[in-house]
Amino acid sequence: MNWPVLYPEMWLLVMACAVLLADLFFTDPQRGPTFWLTQFTIGVFALLHLWSFNGGGTAYGMNGMVVTDPMGHLLAFFAAVSVMISIGYARPTLAARDMMKGEFYTLSLFMLLGISVMTSANNFLVVYLGLELMSLSLYALVALRRDHPVATEAAMKYFVLGALASGFLLYGLSMMYGATGSLEIPKVFEQISTGRINKEVLIFGIVFVVAGLGFKLGAVPFHMWVPDVYQGAPTSVTLLIGGAPKFAAFAITIRLLVEGMLGLAIDWQQMLIVMAVGSLVIGNVAAIAQTNLKRMLAYSTIAQMGFILLGLSAGVVSGNTLSAGNAYSSAMFYVVTYVLTTLGTFGMIMFLSRQGFESEQIDDLAGLGRRCPWAAGVMTVFMFSLAGVPPMVGFYAKLAILQALVSTNIPAFLWLSVFAVLMSLIGAYYYLRVVKVMFFDEPTHSEPVTAGRGVSALLALNGAAVLVFGLLPGGLMAMCRDAIIKALAS
Predict the structure, then answer these.
(1) How far apart are CA 483 and CA 490, in angstroms?
(2) Category of 331 on φ-ψ map: left (φ > 0), alpha (ψ -120 to 50) or beta
């Protein structure tokens, strides 16, 4: 069985059950003990994965159904840190809206467990098990505010479309199993490499697999759930949806398409390119018309996913994989930096909210530069990063993707890089509009901005990280490159 491979997940499972039971006996209405026990659990889980990442090896467990390699450890570590930050931002908001319940923390832990299972999956069934564990936890979290009709509607939409996406993915995986005779990802790769299996069945299966992955990434044309769920869910839950699950979606994309179906790259790369182009166009153009900040950020997410898909589509060029490490590590770096910035943007929305006021409209930020200059400055850092303005980390992330496209020396990818730059220019408009509203519009609210020192410090650290990683991106980029290269080599 090789139990040490599963130690982080075993710790998280045991402690999630412990938090669930312990919360029944805590009398603190602010759920302080539950909060700190949850943060301790996630912190230990993150350290276990970071320690294993530094070990640098690849190991298998459960008869080859689970693999632990540097890529899986690094993605699980980032996901854990993301959930820790999300819970830190969410705590004051939950207390002000009568949502301070132990279920929020327990479901967050089970969501993280699902993400960790996906990052270490080496078998189709394990991929699906982790996906459903994460998804069911998120469905329940969106519906946590049961007396709120908008949140309930968002939960229903998310559940129905998420179930459809899971069905697509499961059907595609079943076709891959039927064609190759194996559920293990490495054996599927070996069978495809032989070239002696039915190509039509494989392509049909690939279409459904890519469609299922497109739903989880929120890419066009499978993006319809993103704006409604981002807007309708409580902001604390929106942050959980927009953060850590992106690492899981990236992980299973690499596991299934690259590690399992690299022999069919010529087919699935074309699909990713179409989805990337659609995501960049619809995401950026639709975001311009939005007045709700959360909905605008949802369309922004769709556009950002387009950049990630461009990186994933440049790994195999003219039948060789020489650029695979560069392309996939650039995409991984983009996911990390995007989540880092997204945590801050939604954290700022919660920071500016108060009882009876959600601060979800762009106009709610009017005059923030006068009412709370430091908050406006931090929000500007996040907006500049999302827009790709130097020296923020978002600029380097976009540059890494463009470099991966240009280095292929293929005319089609060169044109795609030009197209991506043009779409980024369009996207800069709605990000800079938020900055303009904060510093040049007249305030619509005269109430002072007040929040606990913990959230203020967390926002300041988040903003500093976006700036520091933009000025010194080499270390993080090297970690992503090392993780990807070792995962591909194993």
Answers:
(1) 11
(2) alpha
Euclidean distance between CA atoms 97 and 235, whole angstroms: 11
pLDDT of res. 209: 94
Main-chain phi, psi angles of 458, to 5 degrees: -65, -40
Structure tokens, 217:
């990434």
How confident is the model at residue 262, as a pLDDT?
87
Axis crossing angle, helix 199-217 with helix 293-312, rounded to the nearest 10? 150
Q: CB-based contacts of 215: which residues, under 8 Å, 6+ apart?
A: 161, 162, 164, 165, 168, 169, 222, 225
Q: What is the largest CA-CA distance in the chain?
A: 71
Q: Are 375 and 349 in contact (CB under 8 A)?
A: no
Place of tokens 């700190």: 36
**Alpha-helical segments (H) within 143-264:** 149-180, 185-194, 199-217, 225-232, 235-242, 245-253
**Cα-based torsion angle of the residue sequence 223, 350, 148, 167 in order, rounded to the nearest 10 degrees:** 30
The residue among 143, 30, 100, 92 whose CA lies nearest residue 354 is: 92
Q: How many angstroms separate the Cα of 392 from the Cα of each of 246, 340, 413, 424?
A: 21, 12, 25, 15
d(CA 252, CA 90): 27
How far apart CA 4 and CA 27 sit, in angstroms, is 36
What integer pLDDT is reported at residue 193 of this predicted model?
A: 84
Instruction: Name beta bridge partners: 60.
Output: 67
The pTM of the full predicted model, rounded to 2 decimals, is 0.94
Residue 385 has what pLDDT? 94
Per-domain boundaries in the chain? 264-490
Q: How far apart are CA 82 and CA 84, in angstroms?
A: 5
Q: What span, in angstroms and rounded, lies between the C-alpha atoms of 69 and 108?
A: 24
CA distance 385 to 402: 16
pLDDT at 122: 92
User: Which residues have CB under 8 Å from 340's CB, separation 6+?
Assistant: 393, 462, 465, 466, 469
The reported pLDDT for the residue numbered 416 is 93
d(CA 291, CA 361): 6
Residues listed for the chain: 490
Q: Which pair of tokens denotes residue 420?
A: 């991506």
Evaluate whether 127 touches 79 at the Cβ level (below 8 Å): no
Gap between the Cα atoms of 221 and 329, Å rounded: 25
Q: What is the mean pLDDT of each run of 10 residues along the chain (490 residues)?
A: 81 94 83 89 94 83 88 94 92 77 90 94 93 93 84 89 91 91 90 82 91 91 90 89 92 92 88 95 93 92 94 84 87 95 91 74 85 89 92 93 92 93 93 91 72 80 93 92 86
How big is the CA angle at 105 (ends 102 and 111), to the nearest 5 degrees?
A: 135
- Residue 269: per-residue pLDDT: 92
